[in-house]
Write a structure and sequence with these properties.
homodimer; alpha/beta; Rossmann fold; 6-stranded mixed beta sheet; 11 helices; 6 strands
């Protein structure tokens, strides 16, 4: 089967399984991509969108802002060709020598220390959390106490300890647009799919714009 | 909460939710790590182990063999410090210029073309598939027709098209040991957790060996 045919068939199945959802076209596109990537229809259906999430995400990408991730696995899943097209790049600081050293000294996770380390980088960017609840908790703290203002947070950490709480904290604020969910599911594949869907939407808008201007 | 305490708490919850399973201690360790990484207890419980899977995986790692993955996301999730300790490294060829070119020319997926490309590399290695059913299908074909003999295949592709079929083909043969499952779930996080669990078991055995020799 040709790769394009595999993808078409997968999206047909995803659309059938999702059924009719009361969402905007752009939110639906993100939900479909997450379902396609994870094969988890219920998780995709359960995605929570801040009303400004998609618009602010597209805006940030098109302005050339970067994408900061909590873990390398999520960074690896982001389509580099797409983000570089807009002049942005991906960044992940979990293995930076200063992060490793400071995390050990403070008895903190490397993922949360990496967010603290990226305080300046995070302004105006798309921040994506696909693994560590502690990274999302630190990000929320920085938003509350230090005026940290990413353009959009894709907050989908996974796990049994702290993931639900961190996502509830994110969805409970209204300062920074977010995409999140309400249970322990999540993960790098889901977060990467959401980010890549936004990159596709940004490219699509740009194409339309170019053809209108021509 | 200290990182170690988060991990301990998570594994306590995982053990409670898994309940009593009729598995070897090493298989149980892999199941626990997959559950911890994905927060998907049912998927972890459903892992299928070839009787020689764990032993052959540990043996290959300790002999310094490499780990070949289908996608960069899975490669990014593998603990480099652990594998390099044994003299091995990770490899993923999905973005190799020749793979990209040949896949386009043949109307094949890049992931399956990358397996073909790695024919020599795959002998004796640990092969891990966390995303693409077509990569696992190609690997099975190479085993059937070209004497391709990885030491162990961690086969956990995900998705609605071909994932179940590819994993059934893997679990239906007895030539190459495997870890797989029987439904559409899987993913890079699950595959990375299984591989990292094997690396941990290999290191543990090695530590024991060293202390016995001392």
């Amino acid at each position: 089967m040709h790769p394009m045919e595999i993808e078409r068939k997968s999206f047909r199945i995803v659309s059938e399984l999702l059924g009719k959802l009361d969402r905007s076209g752009e939110e639906l596109e993100i939900i479909r991509r997450v379902a396609h990537a994870t094969a988890d229809i219920e998780m995709a259906k359960g995605l929570l969108f801040h009303p400004q999430a998609v618009a602010r995400g597209i805006e940030a990408v098109r302005a050339g802002h970067n994408i900061i991730t909590d873990v390398h696995m999520l960074e690896a899943g982001i389509n580099k060709r797409f983000i570089e097209r807009f002049g942005g790049r991906t960044g992940c600081f979990i293995a930076h020598p200063r992060v490793v050293k400071e995390a050990a000294a403070n008895g903190a996770t490397r993922a949360s220390t990496a967010m603290k380390f990226a305080a300046f980088e995070l302004q105006g960017t798309l921040a994506a959390i696909g693994n560590a609840p502690s990274a999302l908790e630190e990000l929320c703290r920085m938003m509350e106490e230090e005026d940290c203002r990413p353009a959009l947070i894709v907050g989908l950490p996974v796990g049994f300890v702290g993931a639900v709480e961190a996502k509830a904290r994110l969805a409970g604020q209204n300062t920074v647009p977010y995409i999140a969910n309400a249970d322990r599911r999540g993960g790098s594949a889901a977060a990467a799919a959401a980010v890549n869907a936004i990159l596709r939407l940004a490219a699509k808008d740009a194409d339309t714009l170019v053809s209108c201007q021509a």
